[in-house]
Amino acid sequence: MARVKRRRLVSTAAVALLLFAATSGVAHAAPPAGACRDAEPAHAQITAQPWAQQMLDPDAAWPYSRGGGVVVGVVDSGVDADHPQLRRPGKVLTGRDFVAGQNLPGNFDCDSHGTAVASIIAGDSLPGTGFHGMAPDARILPVRVTERDLGEQGQTLRISPQTIGDAIRYAVDQGARVLNLSLAGTADFPAIRDAVAYAVARDVVVVAAAGNAQQDTSTELPSYPADYPGVLGVGEIDIDGARAANSQIGPYVGIVAPGDKVLAATRVDGHAYVEGTSFATPFVAGTAALVRAAWPQLSAAEVIQRIMATASPARGGQGSDSYGAGLVNPYRAVTDGMDLSPAANVPNYQPAPVDQAALDRANWLDDVENKAGWLTLAVLGAIVLAALTVVVMRRGRRRGWEPGLAASPAAEPAVNEPPEQVFLIKKS
């Protein structure tokens, strides 16, 4: 296996925002003439299933969401749209190149950094290849802001803050609903701050790397754009679930994801093991694409809240400055609160055929009951009338059919009332 180069962020507040993370030598793409001074060489394919995909198991969420209809903006070194896992028509959009200044597209890559990021977000599954992305039906909008992430002597290259700001605004205006920023720096640049605020105000889920400049755990370094309001900052863990030694610590770490020696695609038709928070970030951006497709009614802030609330426990405990809310969990982020049971197959209502014989019998019984009721009343009436007749006849015979006289009323007793009197009121 080729030697893995480790990319780190320069931790000087005076430097411009830096693109960082790692990749080994990679394949020969065919960028436009003059766009690349020295494109990375080819790299072999790797068929083994990577540990990050085994740990996160995004396939479990695919029955409910594959990220369809969601555009993810990748502000990076470009994306090689010719890679077999990215070449499905419509997966990688044309994008734009903000480096060469020649109105070039962004769907080529001289360095493979952006290609690796895009593949972790949306790389297709291929027969015989263990690697694939988190949201294979999401679309990638490549926005190229750098040619390479390392210079001729291995130094980290600086990127113009204004270029990054312009690239962010372009991605938002082109319809990106998720924005992957696998870049970080210790300085707060207004051009980037304002562009991130522009994205957040337009309901874009902004996911940014926490940075690779941590030397020890005794200090907390600033990190931008991860520390801007509304941004989900991503830290890096290794295969054992431990924070990578250089993954930065701070309140801007909202969540963690695999980033240490994770597998990713490289230019043309290769793969490489890469490391850094740059490559932890697309695992979270891909999860955001899954959530946005499954829950389109959620705002960007609610998507971030959902991803953090459904994270798996990490070593640092919930709310740690090293691990944030925990390890991103694509399945729970998509399915929590979702009714996963299949819809019941209720048959159509089929009325039973009419039983005419039973209906006729029921009508006959109703008629009989009605007649019996009236007959009963008539009989009872006749009995009462006969009884009254007998009583009258007997009393008539006893009196000789003479009319009876009513008893005279008793005389009222005389009332003796005193005569009317007039009372005089004497004068005093």
TrEMBL record:
Residues 67-326 form the Peptidase S8/S53 domain. The chain crosses the membrane at residues 372-393. It holds the Pfam family Peptidase_S8. The active site is at D76 (charge relay system), H113 (charge relay system), S278 (charge relay system). GO terms for biological process: proteolysis. Residues 1-29 form the signal peptide. PROSITE patterns: SUBTILASE, SUBTILASE_ASP, SUBTILASE_HIS, SUBTILASE_SER, TAT. It is a single-pass membrane protein. One of its GO terms (molecular function) is serine-type endopeptidase activity. It comes from the Bacteria. It is found in: Cell membrane. Belongs to the peptidase S8 family. This is Type VII secretion-associated serine protease.
